[in-house]
Amino acid sequence: MSLSKPRVVSHDRFARIVFGDGRHADFHWIWLRHECALDRHPSTGERTLCSSRIAPDLRAHYAWIDGDALHVRWAGERADRAASRYPLGWLREHAYAPDRDDVEPARTLAELETTLASDEALLPPDWPERLARDGALIARHPTGITGPEHTERLIDQIAAEGLAVITTHFGRIEDLRTDNTTNQNTDQLGYTDAPIDLHTDQPFLDAPPRYQLLHAIRPADEGGESLVSDAHRAARWLAQHDVETYRVLTTTPVRFHRKQKAFERLFTGPILDARSDRFQVRLSPFTMAPHRLPFAEMDAWYRAYARFVRLVEESAVRTTLRAGDVLLYDNHRMLHARTGFRGARWVRGVYFDRGAR
Amino acid sequence: MSLSKPRVVSHDRFARIVFGDGRHADFHWIWLRHECALDRHPSTGERTLCSSRIAPDLRAHYAWIDGDALHVRWAGERADRAASRYPLGWLREHAYAPDRDDVEPARTLAELETTLASDEALLPPDWPERLARDGALIARHPTGITGPEHTERLIDQIAAEGLAVITTHFGRIEDLRTDNTTNQNTDQLGYTDAPIDLHTDQPFLDAPPRYQLLHAIRPADEGGESLVSDAHRAARWLAQHDVETYRVLTTTPVRFHRKQKAFERLFTGPILDARSDRFQVRLSPFTMAPHRLPFAEMDAWYRAYARFVRLVEESAVRTTLRAGDVLLYDNHRMLHARTGFRGARWVRGVYFDRGAR
């Protein structure tokens, strides 16, 4: 037990109080505001503030510990109002989340990317570990120059670790470019210059391909950034912060319906599949069929979905792939997106999975 | 089957389409906005609008049926954008809430109140039926003059229907006035001139008294309006419109803790108790103890509670009781409130319940 000065660490929705003995407890800002002495009747001391009138995203303007009490000045509160004061002993007594662990922060771009040592290697030697640990990796080509002929070398390097190419209704290698005419089923956003929101690929299949390689051949003249975001982390965050939203996303069936010129497939299932032995996210704004939910569940569905999308958007890593760069990610765990662009952007896409299918 | 012109009825969160054969179906505005053609890629036709970017309270500026299609102009949409168009056949095909019944509208003041025929009657003859049907009734004294001595006559009239007075820690008859010194435990908001939010009485008791009579002796010089709102209706509305919120309110335990100079009681249970054989609401901002919920449930709790409070506030009936007026309500079903006031307001309160306790 280490003795040190108590301190407060401010988070978005809550404060963590670290007590003098190293133990800690988390308190939502709304909880603290609701329990404080600012809105009580002067003679009876009764609370006169209903929690329905506190903004759900309220947070402290400033919070500090002075002596044996937490003090909070609230954002948006009149300057002449006293700060709220909470004796540390009272906080200990009412701690509803003692010694809670929080989900680790999202990976940064610096953590996902690696610059290759030579033109020979197309992926870093530890790519399988990185992929398993982080869900995605970005390999930068050292000279920034490479050609489409290296896609096959990449496939060989990945196949050496037991991953086989999965051919889909887009073919074996997808040429993501606006002038694509070689692939079947080019009637989809990937072959336009439009922005594409965060999504997973092929959620309308019973078994979407597990991994995708994106091999950048030519960047756009303008725009065309790539984004990836870890849905598994977002799901764990929700399970720890808003289990109600998590429950809606793991139980509400959604219909992913893809209908193209020469292809049609429908899959019905939840956005988040978090059975104990695996995790799988399916999300795709452009292939969702009209929702068929009971009327009474529709509100909660849109609310939960919006909260999840905001979470993955906030923690997305974004970067512009240069010629030769490789983005490899786990399509069961990560969402990906690209911004709109101008020019002859060319990215090659290949799906992989373990063993035969 | 009656044949008539199809029509659309706009509600706050949804539209009801009444088809030509008299059948109907309800569609949330957010669902309609998400499914419309305004945000689709010009060449592929894919949806480019994520529902997370639609305001949850979006509604139509104007909706109408022309020929065989529903047309919607959206609030906040650019004027040069085409209206959204939904063929009625398509709406029938995708109807997720066909032939749905909605909760009836809240009672109005005119429906709750009745003016007595003479100074002799203190309650209308059908008061037991009104109380059972509406949860509350307001009886207006014809001359607007009556004295505190009539409270006992009211008690007799109510007792004749099998309801007995329940004595509480405030006594047999509560004199709600700022200069009250006769009752025990006067250290509470009821004896001040402060506003009191919608609440139920005595939620901290295992069995809160079922009915309360409020007998107005002297109105305030200014303010002091009375409010009542039907929590049973609000609960049924939630069960039909937002079952997730309903679930949180019927399952999350809350601690009602009343500690006064000479009284202390604690009750732990949900806001809404809707077991099949009964309905009971408990709600009281000023006697809620600090919440002790799992960290991951706190967000959903505040969200659900706020939604419920807004509902009961929106459907509250408000009136100023004059001298002699009587407000009688079911404390297991109705919330009541009063606004702040100035002057020597005097209301007498008596609790009743069926049989011996």
Automatic annotation (TrEMBL), chains A, B:
InterPro entries: AlphaKG_dependent_hydroxylases, GBBH-like_N_sf, TauD-like_sf, TauD/TfdA-like. Residues 133-351 form the TauD/TfdA-like domain. One of its GO terms (biological process) is carnitine biosynthetic process. It comes from the Bacteria. Keywords: Dioxygenase, Iron, Metal-binding, Oxidoreductase. GO terms for molecular function: 2-oxoglutarate-dependent dioxygenase activity; metal ion binding. Its cofactor is Fe(2+); L-ascorbate. Coiled coil: none annotated. Belongs to the gamma-BBH/TMLD family. This is Gamma-butyrobetaine hydroxylase, putative.
